[in-house]
Amino acid sequence: MGISTILSLTLLFLAFTLSSAASCTKSDVAALNAFKNSFPANTFPNSWDGSDNCCFYDGVGCDKGRVTSLLFTSDQDDFDHLPVLLNGSLPASIGDLSALESISIQLQPNLVGPIPNNWANLKKRKYFTIYNTSISGHIPSFISRYTNLLELEINYCKLITGTIPASLGSLANLQVIALDDNNLSGTIPGNLFSKLKSTDQAELGLSNNKLTGSIPQSFATIKWKNLDVSNNMLCGQIPKGGNYVPADGSGFANNKCLCGSPLPACK
């Protein structure tokens, strides 16, 4: 076989591979087109042309022709995300992307409304990030159905209210819960990370909310990678014997009446 023939076959194989990787399922294409059409015209770049090659859409990641990630930000210098400013409500159509594992929507001050109920269908979700938006409503309890979830980050969304779902404690793979800078109230569920096998990976961020009550006793048994409940209205003695990180007590600062190591002793 001549070199030219080998080269031709190699190029043909590469073309076929790229075509296969780029061609999406009809349901994923329809869901992305519905997502695009939920926002004003000219919001998205030319790559979002409605074609079957949706794996080539900016901000979209695929695996074997299925959409597995959506990454959006208004930061023009963030090259990991599609730089786009979204004006409108969170579209329910995202819930039709059944293979979606990761969604990151950041720096979208004009994005409003609650997290749609049909996002409960996204059971393959591993990473869930909504950062600095104007979305409203509660943190959905259906997130507890995301049994593969590793990281949950809904922060800097001041219109997010309600309580922290205790059902999050049922997720055995969940390592990161970041719910800082919202408007959450109520108490901290004592079962958070109770199913996590490697608690040395546990990170909990609840700072700058309106949380009340005390620090759960169970937190003393967790080998924290990071714990921040500062700037709330928590009270009572911090459970003794905990491996709290940071060790300087800053993660407990500016609460109503927390006391005990690593803060000053209770009176």
Automatic annotation (TrEMBL):
InterPro entries: Leu-rich_rpt, LRR_dom_sf, LRR_N_plant-typ, PGIP. Keywords: Leucine-rich repeat, Repeat, Signal. It holds the Pfam family LRRNT_2. The keyword Signal applies. The keyword Transcription does not apply. Residues 27-63 form the Leucine-rich repeat-containing N-terminal plant-type domain. SUPFAM superfamilies: L domain-like. It is found in: Cell envelope. Its main location: other. Residues 1-21 form the signal peptide. It comes from the Eukaryota. Belongs to the polygalacturonase-inhibiting protein family. This is Polygalacturonase inhibitor-like. It comes from Iris pallida (Sweet iris). The lineage of its organism: Eukaryota, Viridiplantae, Streptophyta, Embryophyta, Tracheophyta.
